[in-house]
Amino acid sequence: MNKGVWLVALGLAVLGAPAIAAADETHKVTIVKTFPKYGETITSLKGLVVEIVFSTPMDPATQNDVSMDQRGAVDEKGEPIEFDGTYTWVNPTTLRFAPKGMLKPDSVYQVTVWSAKAKDGSELDGVPYRLPFSTSGAK
Question: In terms of residue numbers, what domain contains 121?
C-alpha cells in the first residue's frame, strides 16, 4: 500500500470514519408502485385487487402487517371496519390483497402497511404507509 494512502486510511480510522461508508449503510425499502394509485377512484369493483410493489424482495411475513379498512365506517366500539381477504405474493416484490366480498360504491378505503421487512433485513421507509382510494357509483 502506498504510504500516503495508508496515512489517509489510518487518519480516517483514528477519526472514527468508516473506510467504506456505503458498505456499512443499510438501504431503506420503498414502495415503487401501487394499484389502485394513491387517491384514485375505482369505477369497477368486480375482481378488485390491491397491489403493492416494493423496491426489493420482501420477507413473506410482511403480509401480517398490512390491513384494509373502510374510512368512516366503524363497528359498535368505534373501531374502523377492516376487510378480510387473501394475501398473495405475486413475486418477491409484489404483494396482492384480494378483499373478501364486494366493496361498497361511493366509499373511501385505505390500505395500511404498518411495517415491512425485506429479505436482507432492511425495513420500509416511512411507515406506516397509507394508500387511500375510493369507489365511485361502480357496480
Answer: 26-135
